[in-house]
Amino acid sequence: MVTKDGQCQQCPTPREWDLLESPYHFYRFLTEIEDALKQATTLHQCDCLPALRRLVRKLVVNSYWLKTQCPKLDPKAAAAFLNLYDEIGYPLTVQIETLMPGASSTIHTHGTWGIVAVLQGQERNTLWRRSPEPAFPDKITRVAEKDLVYGDVISFVPDAIHSVEAVGDKPLVTFNLYGETERQQRFEFDAIAHSAKRY
Question: Is the per-residue pLDDT at 118 higher than 60?
């Protein structure tokens, strides 16, 4: 789990055989995610990240269908997205993202919690933290890098700052689950100009 100060805390990983459930359909996954979030209504939603990570890992372990959902890349684009579920009023983003080798994201926060599972390729997360100075209130400092491969799952608190790069020679394919974005809290950072803007 990546915290707002750029630390990547190691979390317990359930044994794969403890997650086996056949069949495990996508609608069941969505229902279990919704149930876990409802249990957290009196708490901060980040408190249920361990339960959500477990469910994402369970989906990856049990769902061959998920691994066949790869958005096609336009030759002119570095990334492609496939929304897996979209319903008016549904407060989650559930998608698969593909990045070309060498492609990278901006430095950003999500303004909500997020969970990412690697389905193919290798992902390098560069982790940052705010380090404001009087002249540069939006200055950030690089803290660490974390490389992820197939089967790895990482989660983020809403104000965790990171950037992503697809490393290696294969396209990077990830399953992404995000809570409801607070637009006022989602930022893109410029580490050279020490600036931030709404993302």
Answer: yes
